[in-house]
Amino acid sequence: MTIKIGANPIGWSNDDLQDIGGATPLETCLAQAREAGFIGMELGHKFPREPDALRAALSPFDMACVGGWHSVHLLEREAAEEFKLAKAHIALLKAMGTNVFIVAETSNAIHGDRSKPLSQRPRLAPDQWATYCGRMSEFASLIAGEGLRLCYHHHMGTIIENREEIARFMDGCGAWVNLLLDTGHATWGGCDPVELARTYSTRITHVHAKDVRAAVMKQVQSEDWSFLDAILGRGKDLGIYTVPGDGMVDYPAVFRELKGYSGWVVVEAEQDPEKANPLVYAKKGHAHVAASLKSAGLI
Length: 299
What we know:
Blueprint (H helix, E strand, L loop, with lengths): L3 E4 L18 H11 L3 E3 L8 H8 L5 E9 L6 H7 L1 H9 L4 E6 L23 H16 L4 E5 L9 H10 L4 E6 H6 L4 H7 L4 E6 L1 E2 L1 H10 L3 H6 L8 E2 L8 H6 L7 E4 L10 H18 L4
Parallel strand pairs: 1-10, 2-3, 3-4, 4-5, 5-6, 6-7, 7-10
Antiparallel strand pairs: 8-9
């Protein structure tokens, strides 16, 4: 597989706060994404979860299914039980011809709770890491047995957020556990996405490309906002995230560290569509990612 550029529907309809963009039809999202140049789409809450219905939704727009988020609770459950609970998602991905299995630990995450500032996010105790990484490694091995690649999504408001946690997680997990590099979450979490790309280039199997507004990030951090307040913005102000090319991330530098990468680069802009026109931002994001990939010699 060569590099392909896809999109995530959260620029049109938010998954954590579903009334944001709630009135936007799925067809509008897909039509505008295709108009912007995208050829694949990750799943969101408005997508059918039965293969025939999902194909019927995507095919009029000649859009591939890239994959989709799957929450895991491996802090609370053994890998075998988690695997059984993932059967429906596994079957859907296999039927749609994608091997991208995105996971994040959400058993104690706070990113969906607007009342909790990010300073209250969960952290693993020193004696929890070995058990957790062992369960994730076993789960990833079971997923690999189905022909899928587990791509772990480091995420604000969860137990894997900053550079130290990413390192401890990747060092503690087996080879079947791959990293989803999210440039926006990395930057906000205090990481350098260029360094992450360099360090984990052989284990990065999926990329989320979103940008960060530096001034908003400074305010969010100093005032300790919740995740949802930060991405949606308060009042008429725009939120912390935007599309590539509209923030502080150096995308050509990130992509230069991913020589040999094969897979999807998914453009995201987790914004309030009432403030940030999804089509306008989708076009801007696609253009910048395509130009950055070309500059890095990847397409």
